[in-house]
Design a protein that fits this description.
Blueprint: H1 2-16, H2 25-67, E1 83-89, E2 93-96, E3 105-109, E4 114-119, E5 125-130, E6 133-138, E7 142-144, E8 158-162, E9 166-169, E10 178-182, E11 187-192, E12 199-204, E13 207-212, E14 216-217, E15 233-237, E16 245-252, E17 257-264, E18 268-278, E19 284-297, E20 308-321, E21 324-329, E22 338-342
Antiparallel strand pairs: 1-4, 1-7, 2-3, 4-5, 5-6, 8-11, 8-14, 9-10, 11-12, 12-13, 15-16, 15-22, 16-17, 17-18, 18-19, 19-20, 20-21, 21-22
């Protein structure tokens, strides 16, 4: 009995020792799994936190992109001033970030593109804007668009003369190009520039430009000062052409003078039509290369045929001497120096 008790006590002692008589693997696995679960939980928490932070940052970036106001590129302090004039570039022209040919090109303006330019604070450079880019271009890269010529007739067009040698300029600004020198006493057509009364738009040798108004000797507007006024009306020939009586009707519209010459015979009718312009000093009408001559034949029975165009590039000049209108048909010389008297 005593021996059994001692044996049981020893067994109890052995059971209490680690790894002896008891499977501890489940306890160890459970402990290890708990540790791993804790680590995994922390990792998941960190990942979720990181994802949330990333999402928040992304949302903030998107908000910045979508809500930030769009602004034009001005490259530093470059700003457009008052527009000096409208023109066009004569070649492909880079818009520079600085008034320096070696500075960065913001964009290139294609040849012939119309732009507006403003003055910069650097001599030899304009400031311009093209496709929301604002920068510098060289002065010599842009050519000003010519003004409307006074030859386009209107009530505000005057006939005058220059009181001294005057310069015909491409514009009214400091960078304007000299187009021609107008000698003192030259008669010109002009109109006053509405935006600046210190300048007029004048025409000289078929070139339209700007002249300082201080050089203009005022003339009269309308028909009293109109170089065409003496020509307009009906004229009748003093001689016949190929057995035909000839009549001339000269009229003017807003843009030019129209000359219609008609001749009639027993066998045919002739009709010339010339668009003309008055020459520089108003001494004659120049009709260059656009005159049309049509002939309408008639049969002996009096039937009228369809008009036939004889030519469509006729040239002529009409001038008045001593109250007589002379017609010089330069195309074929067929009506050279025939005189006409005014009948209305």
């Amino acid at each position: 009995m005593k021996k059994q008790i001692i044996t049981i006590a020893l067994l109890g002692t052995l059971l209490m020792l680690p790894g002896c008589g008891k499977d501890t693997s489940s306890t160890s696995a459970s402990s290890s799994g708990a540790e791993k679960a804790a680590v995994t939980s922390e990792a998941v928490t960190d990942t979720a936190s990181s994802a949330a932070t990333t999402k928040k940052a992304s949302a903030a970036t998107e908000a910045d992109v979508t809500t930030a106001p769009a602004e034009k590129q001005t490259e530093g302090s470059v700003q457009l001033g008052n527009i000096l004039f409208g023109g066009y570039v004569t070649a492909e022209t880079p818009v520079r970030s600085k008034p320096d040919a070696n500075s960065d090109a913001l964009i290139v303006i294609p040849e012939g593109t119309q732009i507006g330019v403003s003055e910069s604070d650097v001599n030899g450079w304009f400031i311009t804007e093209f496709k929301d880019k604002i920068g510098y271009i060289p002065v010599n890269s842009v050519k000003e668009i010519a003004p409307v010529s006074p030859e386009v007739c209107g009530d505000n067009v005057y006939i005058g003369s220059v009181s001294a040698n005057a310069r015909l300029m491409s514009g009214t600004h400091a960078y304007a190009e000299l187009l021609a020198e107008i000698p003192s006493g030259t008669q010109i057509k002009y109109y006053i520039l509405a935006s600046d009364e210190k300048w007029v738009v004048a025409s000289y040798k078929n070139i339209a430009g700007y002249v300082e108004s201080k050089y203009i000797q005022e003339g009269e507007s309308g028909s009293n000062g109109d170089p065409y006024a003496e020509y307009t009306g009906q004229w009748r020939s003093e001689a016949q052409w190929n057995g035909c009586d000839i009549n001339i009707q000269i009229s003017r519209d807003r843009e030019c003078v129209n000359v219609e010459v008609s001749a009639h015979s027993a066998v045919a009718d002739y009709q010339w039509n010339y668009p003309c312009v008055c020459n520089e000093d108003g001494t004659c009408l120049e009709c260059d290369g656009k005159g049309i001559l049509k002939r309408t034949d008639r049969t002996p029975d009096g039937d009228i045929q369809e008009p036939v165009t004889v030519y469509s590039d006729g040239e002529a000049r009409f001038n008045i001497k001593g109250g007589t209108l002379f017609w010089d048909d330069c195309k074929e010389g067929t009506a050279s120096q025939i005189g006409f008297s005014k009948i209305g």
